Amino acid sequence: MKGVTIHNFCYSYFKVCLLVMSLAYGSAEWDGSSSQIAKTIIVNPNDARYFKTVQSAIDSIPLQNQDWIRILISNGIYSEKVTIPRGKGYIYMQGGGIDKTIIAYGDHQLTTTSATFTSYPSNIIITGITFKNKYNIASSSSPTKPAVAAMMLGDKYAIIDSSFDGFQDTLYDDYGRHYYKRCVISGGIDFIFGGAQSIFEGCTLKLRVGIYPPDEVYGTITAQGRDSPTDKGGFVFKDCTVMGSGKALLNERGNLIHVLSFTVLCLATIFCQLVGMLGKQKAKSK
């Protein structure tokens, strides 16, 4: 199959992200030399010519792959847990949009095993997909447990126009340099956490602790895993919007806020500027 250039906007955003982070962390070039898609494989459970599940498409990619392979995922809800194992990098997962291509499951208990989507290798691009953990989303009747929608464990990721939906520990952003653009991240407790080096630009953070009675619980938007001042991990939120209902901390050391809607510009998870806030804010020590 003749090579096709990677979707220009996605590849360009990733290159800009890596350039910014290379100023602090050294070289950020792609590990591979080609910016061409060598092969496209399709997931469509309604067509016998194509793969029925996302996982089966990933399984078909050879280990130690060095060529960009696009997985084109047809619209629909895929009820499965999906893992990209080590040694299967250079994958471009492309869906039809966050309300059209949804990968959903309901596992819970442990952050390390409950993720609907887990990605280990480096060099991954994702566009137009929702990753959802259904546990605890609809009601407060079940005990609150860690229920991860996506666990990101590799270096050099670009995630564009995608969504991460859950309640506790939605996005486990644990290792590597990642760039999130125009993504929607929903949850109630520590719903963006981990030790990665990530930029969130133009994203929407949706708080949903309003399902609980007033004053029963407040949420925490971020729980970044820096253990010391020399730790290289950190989250940068640029021109992001926080919306939803309930009380929340921007992070575990931040201010308690009553959320309706506001824009947030964070240079790190320990310093944020709120712009155009429609809710109330009051200081709370923890």
From TrEMBL:
GO terms for biological process: cell wall modification; pectin catabolic process. Its EC number is 3.1.1.11. Pathway: Glycan metabolism; pectin degradation; 2-dehydro-3-deoxy-D-gluconate from pectin: step 1/5. InterPro entries: Pectin_lyas_fold, Pectin_lyase_fold/virulence, Pectinesterase_cat. Residues 1-28 form the signal peptide. SUPFAM superfamilies: Pectin lyase-like. Residues 41-248 form the Pectinesterase catalytic domain. This is pectinesterase. It comes from Arabidopsis thaliana (Mouse-ear cress).
